[in-house]
Amino acid sequence: MEFNGYRREDGSVGVRNHILVMSSVACANGVVEALERMFPEVMTIKHAYGCGYGPDDLTLSLKTLGGMANHPNVGAVLIIGLGCEVLKPEYVVGAVKGKPVETMLIQTAGSRTTIDKASQIIERFAAHVERQKREPTPVSQLLVGLKCGGSDAFSGITANPALGVAADMLVAEGASVVMGEVTEMIGTDHILKRRCPDPEVGEKLQKLILEHEKRVRGALGALAGLVIAPGNIDGGLSSITEKSLGCNAKAGTSPIVEVVGYAEKPTGKGLVIMNTPGYDIDAMAGMAAAGAQIIVFTTGRGTPVGFPAVPVIKVSSNSTVFKAMAGDIDVDAGAILEGEKSLADVGKEIYDCILATANGRPTCAEINRMETFNCLKQGMTF
Amino acid sequence: MVALKNNALKIHHADNVAIAIRDIKKGEPVVVEGTEACVAAEDIPASHKIALEPIAAGRPVIRYGEPIVVATSDIGTGQWVHLHNTKPIEK
Protein backbone atom coordinates (compact mmCIF):
# COMPACT_ATOMS: atom_id res chain seq x y z
CA MET A 1 0.00 0.00 0.00
CA GLU A 2 1.02 3.60 -0.58
CA PHE A 3 0.22 7.04 0.79
CA ASN A 4 1.10 10.52 -0.39
CA GLY A 5 3.64 12.11 1.91
CA TYR A 6 6.34 14.77 2.05
CA ARG A 7 9.78 13.33 1.35
CA ARG A 8 12.54 14.82 3.50
CA GLU A 9 16.23 15.06 2.66
CA ASP A 10 17.17 12.69 5.50
CA GLY A 11 15.04 9.93 3.91
CA SER A 12 12.07 10.27 6.27
CA VAL A 13 8.54 11.00 5.01
CA GLY A 14 6.09 13.43 6.60
CA VAL A 15 2.30 13.12 6.62
CA ARG A 16 2.03 16.88 7.31
CA ASN A 17 4.14 19.88 6.31
CA HIS A 18 4.02 22.21 9.29
CA ILE A 19 6.02 25.29 10.13
CA LEU A 20 7.10 24.77 13.75
CA VAL A 21 7.96 27.58 16.16
CA MET A 22 9.42 26.37 19.47
CA SER A 23 10.88 27.91 22.59
CA SER A 24 14.17 26.57 23.91
CA VAL A 25 13.31 27.76 27.42
CA ALA A 26 10.08 28.69 29.23
CA CYS A 27 11.24 32.36 29.36
CA ALA A 28 10.69 32.51 25.57
CA ASN A 29 7.15 31.06 25.72
CA GLY A 30 5.52 34.53 25.72
CA VAL A 31 7.13 35.41 22.38
CA VAL A 32 6.04 32.06 20.92
CA GLU A 33 2.48 32.73 22.17
CA ALA A 34 2.47 36.17 20.51
CA LEU A 35 3.48 34.54 17.22
CA GLU A 36 0.78 31.90 17.71
CA ARG A 37 -1.84 34.68 17.87
CA MET A 38 -0.44 36.33 14.73
CA PHE A 39 -0.06 33.07 12.73
CA PRO A 40 -2.72 30.61 13.88
CA GLU A 41 -1.79 28.13 11.12
CA VAL A 42 1.71 27.68 12.56
CA MET A 43 2.45 24.80 15.00
CA THR A 44 4.07 25.80 18.27
CA ILE A 45 5.86 23.98 21.05
CA LYS A 46 6.22 25.57 24.47
CA HIS A 47 7.44 23.85 27.60
CA ALA A 48 7.96 24.51 31.29
CA TYR A 49 11.79 24.26 31.57
CA GLY A 50 14.89 24.52 29.36
CA CYS A 51 16.78 25.87 32.36
CA GLY A 52 16.99 25.36 36.12
CA TYR A 53 17.66 21.65 35.85
CA GLY A 54 20.53 19.15 35.77
CA PRO A 55 22.30 17.36 32.91
CA ASP A 56 19.93 14.34 32.84
CA ASP A 57 16.83 16.49 32.32
CA LEU A 58 18.73 18.72 29.88
CA THR A 59 19.60 15.63 27.80
CA LEU A 60 15.97 14.44 27.86
CA SER A 61 14.66 17.86 26.77
CA LEU A 62 17.26 18.16 24.06
CA LYS A 63 16.37 14.75 22.63
CA THR A 64 12.67 15.61 22.72
CA LEU A 65 12.97 19.12 21.24
CA GLY A 66 15.59 17.98 18.71
CA GLY A 67 13.34 15.13 17.61
CA MET A 68 10.40 17.51 17.16
CA ALA A 69 12.51 20.10 15.28
CA ASN A 70 13.66 17.36 12.87
CA HIS A 71 10.23 15.67 12.79
CA PRO A 72 9.19 14.37 9.35
CA ASN A 73 5.89 16.30 9.66
CA VAL A 74 7.79 19.59 10.04
CA GLY A 75 8.88 21.47 6.89
CA ALA A 76 10.68 24.39 8.56
CA VAL A 77 11.52 25.29 12.14
CA LEU A 78 12.20 28.46 14.12
CA ILE A 79 13.67 28.12 17.63
CA ILE A 80 13.38 31.06 20.00
CA GLY A 81 15.57 31.28 23.09
CA LEU A 82 16.33 33.86 25.72
CA GLY A 83 20.15 33.91 25.70
CA CYS A 84 21.35 32.89 29.17
CA GLU A 85 19.46 29.56 29.41
CA VAL A 86 20.97 26.09 29.79
CA LEU A 87 19.24 24.65 26.71
CA LYS A 88 20.29 27.01 23.91
CA PRO A 89 18.50 27.07 20.52
CA GLU A 90 21.80 26.24 18.77
CA TYR A 91 21.88 22.85 20.56
CA VAL A 92 18.54 21.96 18.94
CA VAL A 93 19.75 23.07 15.49
CA GLY A 94 22.30 20.24 15.55
CA ALA A 95 19.43 17.71 15.33
CA VAL A 96 17.84 19.30 12.23
CA LYS A 97 18.77 17.72 8.88
CA GLY A 98 18.13 19.27 5.47
CA LYS A 99 15.30 21.70 6.21
CA PRO A 100 15.15 25.44 6.84
CA VAL A 101 15.98 26.24 10.47
CA GLU A 102 16.46 29.62 12.17
CA THR A 103 17.19 30.66 15.74
CA MET A 104 16.63 33.91 17.64
CA LEU A 105 17.63 35.12 21.11
CA ILE A 106 15.35 37.58 22.88
CA GLN A 107 18.18 39.13 24.93
CA THR A 108 19.88 40.47 21.80
CA ALA A 109 16.93 42.55 20.53
CA GLY A 110 14.03 42.49 23.02
CA SER A 111 10.74 40.71 22.61
CA ARG A 112 9.06 43.20 20.23
CA THR A 113 11.88 43.16 17.69
CA THR A 114 12.15 39.38 18.05
CA ILE A 115 8.45 39.04 17.23
CA ASP A 116 8.80 41.36 14.19
CA LYS A 117 11.81 39.51 12.82
CA ALA A 118 10.29 36.12 13.59
CA SER A 119 7.19 37.15 11.60
CA GLN A 120 9.36 37.78 8.54
CA ILE A 121 11.01 34.37 8.97
CA ILE A 122 7.60 32.65 9.26
CA GLU A 123 6.42 34.36 6.03
CA ARG A 124 9.57 33.15 4.26
CA PHE A 125 9.02 29.61 5.64
CA ALA A 126 5.39 29.70 4.45
CA ALA A 127 6.52 30.34 0.87
CA HIS A 128 8.99 27.45 1.17
CA VAL A 129 6.55 24.84 2.53
CA GLU A 130 3.89 25.84 -0.02
CA ARG A 131 6.22 24.78 -2.83
CA GLN A 132 6.60 21.26 -1.41
CA LYS A 133 4.19 18.65 -2.76
CA ARG A 134 3.03 15.22 -1.58
CA GLU A 135 4.49 12.24 -3.43
CA PRO A 136 3.49 8.54 -3.44
CA THR A 137 5.37 6.66 -0.72
CA PRO A 138 5.15 3.07 0.55
CA VAL A 139 3.37 2.48 3.87
CA SER A 140 6.66 0.97 5.10
CA GLN A 141 7.84 4.59 5.65
CA LEU A 142 5.40 4.97 8.54
CA LEU A 143 6.28 4.82 12.23
CA VAL A 144 3.01 4.76 14.17
CA GLY A 145 2.87 5.38 17.93
CA LEU A 146 0.49 3.22 20.01
CA LYS A 147 -1.00 4.67 23.18
CA CYS A 148 -3.86 3.99 25.57
CA GLY A 149 -5.09 6.39 28.21
CA GLY A 150 -8.13 6.85 30.40
CA SER A 151 -8.74 3.11 29.98
CA ASP A 152 -11.88 1.32 31.17
CA ALA A 153 -12.93 -2.32 31.61
CA PHE A 154 -13.57 -2.56 27.86
CA SER A 155 -10.24 -1.11 26.64
CA GLY A 156 -8.54 -4.51 26.86
CA ILE A 157 -11.47 -6.21 25.11
CA THR A 158 -12.33 -3.88 22.20
CA ALA A 159 -10.13 -0.86 21.42
CA ASN A 160 -6.71 -2.30 22.33
CA PRO A 161 -7.02 -5.68 20.56
CA ALA A 162 -8.56 -3.88 17.54
CA LEU A 163 -5.58 -1.50 17.45
CA GLY A 164 -3.41 -4.64 17.71
CA VAL A 165 -5.03 -5.90 14.49
CA ALA A 166 -4.15 -2.59 12.77
CA ALA A 167 -0.60 -2.72 14.22
CA ASP A 168 -0.12 -6.24 12.78
CA MET A 169 -1.37 -5.00 9.37
CA LEU A 170 1.15 -2.13 9.43
CA VAL A 171 4.03 -4.43 10.38
CA ALA A 172 2.99 -6.86 7.62
CA GLU A 173 3.37 -3.92 5.18
CA GLY A 174 6.93 -3.36 6.42
CA ALA A 175 6.07 -0.35 8.58
CA SER A 176 7.04 0.18 12.22
CA VAL A 177 4.91 0.63 15.31
CA VAL A 178 6.16 1.80 18.69
CA MET A 179 4.62 1.12 22.09
CA GLY A 180 5.75 2.87 25.30
CA GLU A 181 4.28 2.92 28.82
CA VAL A 182 6.67 0.46 30.45
CA THR A 183 4.86 0.85 33.78
CA GLU A 184 1.84 -0.70 32.04
CA MET A 185 3.90 -3.80 31.13
CA ILE A 186 4.54 -4.83 34.75
CA GLY A 187 3.68 -8.49 35.25
CA THR A 188 4.27 -9.38 31.59
CA ASP A 189 8.07 -9.16 31.41
CA HIS A 190 8.43 -12.95 30.99
CA ILE A 191 5.78 -12.97 28.23
CA LEU A 192 7.18 -10.02 26.28
CA LYS A 193 10.71 -11.42 26.59
CA ARG A 194 9.56 -14.54 24.72
CA ARG A 195 8.31 -12.33 21.89
CA CYS A 196 11.82 -11.00 21.16
CA PRO A 197 13.60 -13.13 18.53
CA ASP A 198 16.93 -11.58 19.59
CA PRO A 199 17.71 -12.82 23.13
CA GLU A 200 19.67 -9.63 23.87
CA VAL A 201 16.59 -7.54 23.09
CA GLY A 202 14.55 -9.85 25.32
CA GLU A 203 16.97 -9.47 28.24
CA LYS A 204 16.99 -5.69 27.82
CA LEU A 205 13.19 -5.51 27.79
CA GLN A 206 12.76 -7.77 30.83
CA LYS A 207 15.36 -5.77 32.76
CA LEU A 208 13.64 -2.51 31.85
CA ILE A 209 10.21 -3.74 33.00
CA LEU A 210 11.62 -5.16 36.27
CA GLU A 211 13.39 -1.85 36.95
CA HIS A 212 10.11 0.01 36.49
CA GLU A 213 8.36 -2.48 38.80
CA LYS A 214 10.99 -1.87 41.49
CA ARG A 215 10.68 1.90 41.11
CA VAL A 216 6.88 1.77 41.29
CA ARG A 217 7.08 -0.35 44.47
CA GLY A 218 9.69 2.04 45.90
CA ALA A 219 7.56 5.10 45.15
CA LEU A 220 4.17 3.69 46.19
CA GLY A 221 5.24 1.41 49.06
CA ALA A 222 2.16 -0.21 50.58
CA LEU A 223 0.05 1.38 47.83
CA ALA A 224 1.87 -0.63 45.13
CA GLY A 225 -1.07 -3.06 45.09
CA LEU A 226 -3.08 -0.20 43.58
CA VAL A 227 -1.21 -0.74 40.32
CA ILE A 228 -4.16 -3.03 39.93
CA ALA A 229 -6.76 -0.76 41.45
CA PRO A 230 -10.11 -1.65 43.05
CA GLY A 231 -11.72 -0.22 39.89
CA ASN A 232 -9.74 -2.70 37.77
CA ILE A 233 -10.94 -5.58 39.96
CA ASP A 234 -14.55 -4.38 39.72
CA GLY A 235 -14.02 -4.36 35.96
CA GLY A 236 -13.16 -8.07 36.05
CA LEU A 237 -9.35 -8.01 36.03
CA SER A 238 -7.90 -10.69 38.32
CA SER A 239 -4.16 -9.91 38.16
CA ILE A 240 -1.64 -7.27 37.11
CA THR A 241 -0.58 -9.68 34.35
CA GLU A 242 -4.12 -9.69 32.95
CA LYS A 243 -4.32 -5.89 33.13
CA SER A 244 -0.96 -5.42 31.41
CA LEU A 245 -1.79 -7.97 28.69
CA GLY A 246 -4.85 -5.84 27.90
CA CYS A 247 -2.58 -2.85 27.53
CA ASN A 248 -0.01 -4.75 25.45
CA ALA A 249 -2.81 -5.99 23.17
CA LYS A 250 -2.68 -2.69 21.29
CA ALA A 251 0.74 -3.67 19.86
CA GLY A 252 -0.65 -6.79 18.17
CA THR A 253 1.21 -10.07 17.89
CA SER A 254 4.37 -9.22 15.89
CA PRO A 255 7.82 -10.10 17.21
CA ILE A 256 9.50 -7.32 19.22
CA VAL A 257 12.54 -6.29 17.18
CA GLU A 258 14.01 -3.47 19.25
CA VAL A 259 13.90 -1.70 22.61
CA VAL A 260 14.75 2.01 22.43
CA GLY A 261 15.30 4.75 24.99
CA TYR A 262 12.98 7.71 25.47
CA ALA A 263 12.64 9.77 22.24
CA GLU A 264 15.16 7.47 20.52
CA LYS A 265 14.64 6.69 16.82
CA PRO A 266 14.24 2.96 16.01
CA THR A 267 16.85 1.61 13.59
CA GLY A 268 14.91 -1.37 12.21
CA LYS A 269 11.38 -2.08 11.01
CA GLY A 270 8.65 -3.82 12.98
CA LEU A 271 7.33 -3.66 16.54
CA VAL A 272 9.48 -1.50 18.82
CA ILE A 273 9.19 -0.89 22.57
CA MET A 274 10.17 2.52 23.93
CA ASN A 275 11.04 3.38 27.51
CA THR A 276 8.34 5.93 28.36
CA PRO A 277 6.15 6.54 31.38
CA GLY A 278 2.44 5.75 31.12
CA TYR A 279 1.51 9.44 31.48
CA ASP A 280 -0.24 10.37 28.24
CA ILE A 281 1.58 13.56 27.26
CA ASP A 282 5.07 12.30 28.14
CA ALA A 283 4.49 8.99 26.34
CA MET A 284 3.25 10.77 23.18
CA ALA A 285 6.19 13.22 23.30
CA GLY A 286 8.69 10.33 23.40
CA MET A 287 7.11 8.55 20.42
CA ALA A 288 6.67 11.79 18.42
CA ALA A 289 10.25 12.88 19.06
CA ALA A 290 11.43 9.49 17.76
CA GLY A 291 9.74 10.37 14.45
CA ALA A 292 6.28 8.77 14.79
CA GLN A 293 4.27 10.54 12.07
CA ILE A 294 0.92 9.40 13.53
CA ILE A 295 -0.16 8.28 17.02
CA VAL A 296 -3.21 6.06 17.61
CA PHE A 297 -4.68 6.55 21.08
CA THR A 298 -7.33 4.25 22.60
CA THR A 299 -9.52 5.47 25.43
CA GLY A 300 -12.39 4.18 27.56
CA ARG A 301 -13.15 7.18 29.74
CA GLY A 302 -12.41 9.61 26.88
CA THR A 303 -9.78 12.30 26.34
CA PRO A 304 -9.53 15.18 23.87
CA VAL A 305 -5.71 15.27 23.75
CA GLY A 306 -3.65 15.66 20.61
CA PHE A 307 -0.04 16.58 19.97
CA PRO A 308 1.70 19.40 18.07
CA ALA A 309 2.53 18.51 14.43
CA VAL A 310 1.56 14.85 14.92
CA PRO A 311 -2.00 13.71 14.08
CA VAL A 312 -3.50 11.70 16.95
CA ILE A 313 -6.26 9.21 16.04
CA LYS A 314 -8.60 8.52 18.95
CA VAL A 315 -10.31 5.12 19.32
CA SER A 316 -13.05 4.64 21.96
CA SER A 317 -13.55 1.30 23.71
CA ASN A 318 -17.31 1.87 24.13
CA SER A 319 -20.03 3.72 22.22
CA THR A 320 -21.22 5.69 25.29
CA VAL A 321 -18.02 7.75 25.41
CA PHE A 322 -17.96 7.98 21.59
CA LYS A 323 -21.39 9.66 21.73
CA ALA A 324 -20.65 11.74 24.86
CA MET A 325 -17.45 13.11 23.30
CA ALA A 326 -18.70 13.42 19.73
CA GLY A 327 -16.08 15.27 17.70
CA ASP A 328 -13.16 14.12 19.88
CA ILE A 329 -13.00 10.46 18.84
CA ASP A 330 -12.26 9.17 15.33
CA VAL A 331 -13.09 5.45 15.52
CA ASP A 332 -15.60 3.68 17.81
CA ALA A 333 -14.56 0.17 18.84
CA GLY A 334 -17.71 0.02 21.00
CA ALA A 335 -19.54 -1.55 18.06
CA ILE A 336 -17.76 -4.79 19.08
CA LEU A 337 -19.70 -4.73 22.38
CA GLU A 338 -22.98 -4.41 20.47
CA GLY A 339 -22.01 -7.56 18.60
CA GLU A 340 -22.25 -5.51 15.36
CA LYS A 341 -18.57 -5.64 14.40
CA SER A 342 -15.65 -8.01 14.99
CA LEU A 343 -12.17 -7.10 16.23
CA ALA A 344 -10.96 -7.65 12.65
CA ASP A 345 -13.60 -5.21 11.30
CA VAL A 346 -12.60 -2.43 13.70
CA GLY A 347 -8.89 -3.22 13.21
CA LYS A 348 -9.35 -2.66 9.48
CA GLU A 349 -11.26 0.58 10.21
CA ILE A 350 -8.33 1.82 12.31
CA TYR A 351 -5.86 0.84 9.56
CA ASP A 352 -7.95 2.69 6.95
CA CYS A 353 -8.12 5.71 9.25
CA ILE A 354 -4.31 5.65 9.62
CA LEU A 355 -3.92 5.65 5.80
CA ALA A 356 -6.50 8.43 5.32
CA THR A 357 -4.72 10.46 8.01
CA ALA A 358 -1.36 9.84 6.33
CA ASN A 359 -2.88 11.14 3.08
CA GLY A 360 -3.88 14.39 4.78
CA ARG A 361 -7.34 13.86 6.29
CA PRO A 362 -7.38 15.74 9.62
CA THR A 363 -8.12 13.85 12.84
CA CYS A 364 -10.59 15.11 15.47
CA ALA A 365 -7.71 16.30 17.67
CA GLU A 366 -6.24 18.23 14.72
CA ILE A 367 -9.57 19.87 13.85
CA ASN A 368 -9.96 20.83 17.53
CA ARG A 369 -6.34 22.10 17.60
CA MET A 370 -5.45 19.96 20.63
CA GLU A 371 -1.69 20.42 20.66
CA THR A 372 -0.53 19.63 24.17
CA PHE A 373 3.20 19.25 24.70
CA ASN A 374 5.50 18.46 27.59
CA CYS A 375 9.21 17.74 28.02
CA LEU A 376 9.66 14.78 30.38
CA LYS A 377 11.45 15.91 33.54
CA GLN A 378 12.55 13.51 36.29
CA GLY A 379 15.19 15.29 38.37
CA MET A 380 15.15 18.25 40.75
CA THR A 381 14.55 21.88 39.84
CA PHE A 382 17.40 24.18 40.86
CA MET B 1 -29.09 -20.58 9.97
CA VAL B 2 -29.19 -17.15 11.57
CA ALA B 3 -26.08 -16.46 13.67
CA LEU B 4 -26.82 -15.77 17.33
CA LYS B 5 -25.93 -12.35 18.71
CA ASN B 6 -22.60 -12.40 20.57
CA ASN B 7 -22.67 -11.65 24.29
CA ALA B 8 -19.07 -12.72 24.96
CA LEU B 9 -15.70 -12.39 23.27
CA LYS B 10 -12.87 -14.88 23.05
CA ILE B 11 -9.79 -12.78 22.30
CA HIS B 12 -7.22 -15.51 21.47
CA HIS B 13 -7.90 -18.99 20.05
CA ALA B 14 -5.98 -20.60 22.94
CA ASP B 15 -8.09 -18.87 25.64
CA ASN B 16 -10.05 -21.05 28.08
CA VAL B 17 -12.19 -18.07 29.13
CA ALA B 18 -14.42 -15.62 27.26
CA ILE B 19 -15.22 -12.05 28.35
CA ALA B 20 -18.85 -11.04 28.82
CA ILE B 21 -19.59 -7.98 26.67
CA ARG B 22 -22.82 -7.38 28.61
CA ASP B 23 -24.29 -8.76 31.85
CA ILE B 24 -25.12 -12.44 31.34
CA LYS B 25 -27.72 -14.07 33.60
CA LYS B 26 -27.50 -17.61 35.02
CA GLY B 27 -28.96 -20.08 32.51
CA GLU B 28 -28.43 -17.81 29.48
CA PRO B 29 -26.45 -19.17 26.54
CA VAL B 30 -22.93 -17.70 26.23
CA VAL B 31 -22.58 -16.76 22.55
CA VAL B 32 -19.10 -16.40 21.10
CA GLU B 33 -18.59 -15.72 17.38
CA GLY B 34 -22.24 -16.43 16.62
CA THR B 35 -22.32 -19.87 18.28
CA GLU B 36 -23.38 -21.04 21.70
CA ALA B 37 -20.16 -21.86 23.57
CA CYS B 38 -21.81 -22.89 26.86
CA VAL B 39 -24.54 -21.91 29.31
CA ALA B 40 -23.82 -19.42 32.10
CA ALA B 41 -23.69 -21.41 35.36
CA GLU B 42 -24.12 -18.19 37.37
CA ASP B 43 -24.59 -14.43 36.77
CA ILE B 44 -21.58 -12.95 34.95
CA PRO B 45 -21.11 -9.16 35.06
CA ALA B 46 -20.12 -7.32 31.84
CA SER B 47 -16.32 -7.31 31.19
CA HIS B 48 -15.82 -10.33 33.52
CA LYS B 49 -14.51 -13.81 32.61
CA ILE B 50 -16.51 -17.02 31.97
CA ALA B 51 -14.85 -20.46 31.85
CA LEU B 52 -15.34 -22.01 28.38
CA GLU B 53 -14.11 -25.42 29.59
CA PRO B 54 -13.43 -27.05 32.97
CA ILE B 55 -10.31 -25.58 34.64
CA ALA B 56 -8.96 -27.86 37.39
CA ALA B 57 -7.49 -26.41 40.60
CA GLY B 58 -3.84 -25.52 39.96
CA ARG B 59 -4.36 -25.12 36.19
CA PRO B 60 -3.80 -21.75 34.45
CA VAL B 61 -6.55 -19.47 33.22
CA ILE B 62 -5.63 -18.41 29.69
CA ARG B 63 -6.58 -15.00 28.26
CA TYR B 64 -4.84 -13.19 25.35
CA GLY B 65 -3.28 -16.63 24.78
CA GLU B 66 -1.27 -16.34 28.02
CA PRO B 67 -1.66 -17.64 31.59
CA ILE B 68 -3.04 -14.75 33.68
CA VAL B 69 -3.90 -16.52 36.97
CA VAL B 70 -4.10 -20.05 38.41
CA ALA B 71 -7.36 -21.71 39.50
CA THR B 72 -7.54 -22.25 43.29
CA SER B 73 -10.56 -24.59 43.02
CA ASP B 74 -12.05 -26.67 40.22
CA ILE B 75 -13.88 -24.28 37.88
CA GLY B 76 -16.72 -25.69 35.78
CA THR B 77 -17.73 -24.65 32.27
CA GLY B 78 -19.89 -21.52 32.34
CA GLN B 79 -18.66 -20.41 35.76
CA TRP B 80 -17.51 -16.91 36.66
CA VAL B 81 -13.69 -16.66 36.95
CA HIS B 82 -12.25 -14.01 39.26
CA LEU B 83 -10.43 -13.45 42.57
CA HIS B 84 -12.69 -15.91 44.48
CA ASN B 85 -11.45 -18.94 42.49
CA THR B 86 -8.00 -17.85 41.21
CA LYS B 87 -4.67 -16.48 42.44
CA PRO B 88 -1.80 -14.65 40.69
CA ILE B 89 0.89 -16.82 39.12
CA GLU B 90 4.03 -16.95 41.25
CA LYS B 91 7.20 -16.25 39.31
Tell me what the structure shows.
The complex is a heterodimer of chains A (382) and B (91). By secondary structure, chain A is of the alpha/beta class. Chain A folds into two domains: 18-131, Rossmann fold (3-Layer(aba) Sandwich), CATH 3.40.50; 138-367. Helix content of chain A is 39%, strand content 17%. Chain A has 13 helices and 14 strands. In chain A, the strands form three sheets. A seven-stranded parallel sheet of chain A has the order 10-11-9-8-12-13-14, sandwiched between helices. In chain A, strands 4-3-5-6 form a four-stranded parallel sheet, sandwiched between helices. In chain A, α2 crosses α10 (280-289). Chain A is globular and about 60 Å long. In chain A, 55% of the residues are buried. The mean pLDDT of chain A is 95. Chain B is an all-beta fold and 91 residues long. Chain B has one domain: Archaeosine Trna-guanine Transglycosylase, Chain: A, domain 4 (Roll), CATH 2.30.130.110. Chain B has no helices and nine strands. Chain B has strands at 8-9, 17-20, 29-32, 35-39, 49-51, 60-63, 66-71, 80-81, 86-87. Chain B has a four-stranded antiparallel sheet with strand order 1-2-5-8, with no helix packed on it. In chain B, a hairpin with a 2-residue loop joins β3 (29-32) and β4. Chain B starts with 7 loop residues before the first strand and ends with a strand.
